[in-house]
Design brief:
The structure holds two protein chains of two kinds.
Chain A (H helix, E strand, L loop, with lengths): L5 H9 L7 H12 L23 H13 L3 H9 L1 H16 L1 H4 L9 H9 L18 H4 L6 H23 L3 H13 L6 H28 L4
Helix pairs in contact in A: 2-3, 2-4, 4-5, 5-7, 9-10, 10-11
Chain B lengths: L5 H39 L2 H5 L2 H20 L6 H9 L11 H10 L1
Classes of the chains: A mainly alpha, B mainly alpha.
């Protein structure tokens, strides 16, 4: 059986054409350079024919899944070699899985998500020998075109969630002016926000307008105590 | 012989009595709301809208309208707020002035 090339291995493991995803290709090459993925040393001089021993496939597979969550190749390597880094990564991945509700809209996590975290959290399971369960229906690197990382997506998402949280909280607290200020931010960025949120923001903004007008009317009719 | 006209007289008079009564309690209620609304608006500005129901606002406006209208026909001292407070003071009273007119006159002289 002929040895794998990096691109051939990615095609077989994930059904992706590595050439279409330059960022993933860069990251995997970094993993080769930092020594996590061992390529056949004799062939490394033929730059285009670097080959991958079959025993490295599991490492490559696990590393690619981890890159979806941790885009830094150095970090991925330390998850393999450093127990403490692995523990932290497992905790972090667990947070993401726990937060599956919101992430589901970004990448379709499947039922493997929990076992993925479990295996990652068990230090005795060698990541070089045991394949992690792929928690993604589609590899995020492919879905997000390599321009945006899963994490930045999630951060952007929680940022927008926290703004809607602030808006709702101040609205329910009767802080209509504060709620309306958050609402106007959301309305200004309407095309980037979920449409239900924009509707809610418009509603709050309108209610604030009515309340202000009411206050001005009371001022006008009742205000001058003469 | 005249007795047969009594029911007719009563029917003619009754609506007037009922209307006067409604106006008087509505006025007292309204002036109570008006003071509350005025004070809320001074203190909380736009929050007054959240604290006031539609009917409260309508009643408050009714009080202010009646007081303003009374001013147009009578020489009245002092501000409307003071008169509204006088009228609202009857909110929990058992005995009310006999008419809206006397209630407003009292408010004017207060």
């Amino acid at each position: 059986m002929s040895p794998y090339t990096l691109a051939g291995a990615v095609r077989d493991l994930f059904g992706l054409k590595l050439g279409d995803f330059p960022k993933l290709k860069d990251q995997l090459n970094s993993l080769v350079r930092n020594g996590l993925i061992h390529v056949d040393a004799e062939r490394i001089s033929h730059r285009n024919r670097r080959s991958l021993p079959e025993c490295e496939l599991t490492t490559l597979f696990n590393a690619t899944l981890l890159l979806a969550i941790f885009p830094d190749p150095a970090m991925v390597k330390s998850i393999f070699v450093n127990a403490e880094a692995r523990r932290k990564a497992a905790t972090f991945a667990d947070l993401i899985v726990m937060n599956r509700q919101s992430l589901l809209e970004l990448v379709h996590l499947n039922v493997n998500a929990a076992t993925f975290v479990n295996v990652l959290a068990t230090p005795d399971i060698d990541l070089r020998k045991n394949k992690l369960d792929n928690p993604f229906e589609v590899l995020p690197q492919a879905l997000l075109e390599g321009n945006v990382e899963l994490l930045s997506c999630n951060v952007a998402r929680s940022a927008s969630l926290s703004r809607s949280d602030l808006m709702l909280r101040s609205y329910l607290d009767g802080e209509l002016d504060v709620a309306a200020r958050h609402a106007r931010h959301i309305i200004l960025a309407a095309e980037k926000e979920p449409s239900e949120l924009v509707k809610l923001a418009l509603h709050i903004d309108a209610e604030y307008g009515v309340a202000k007008e009411f206050s001005e009317t009371v001022d006008f009719l009742f205000g001058r105590a003469f | 012989m005249m007795l047969r006209y009594v029911p007719i007289l009563l029917i003619l008079v009754l609506p007037k009595l009922v209307m006067a009564e409604t106006n008087r309690t509505a006025l007292i209620e309204g002036c109570f709301e008006a003071i509350q609304l005025y004070e809320n608006n001074q203190q909380y500005t736009f929050k007054a809208a959240l604290m006031t129901s539609l009917s409260e606002a309508l009643r408050a406006g009714y009080c202010k309208g009646v007081i303003d209208e009374y001013d147009r026909n009578h020489d009245c001292e002092g501000d409307w707020l003071k008169r509204a407070r006088y009228v609202a003071g009857y909110k929990d009273e058992k005995s009310l002035p006999p008419s809206t007119e006397s209630l407003l006159r009292g408010a004017c002289q207060s």
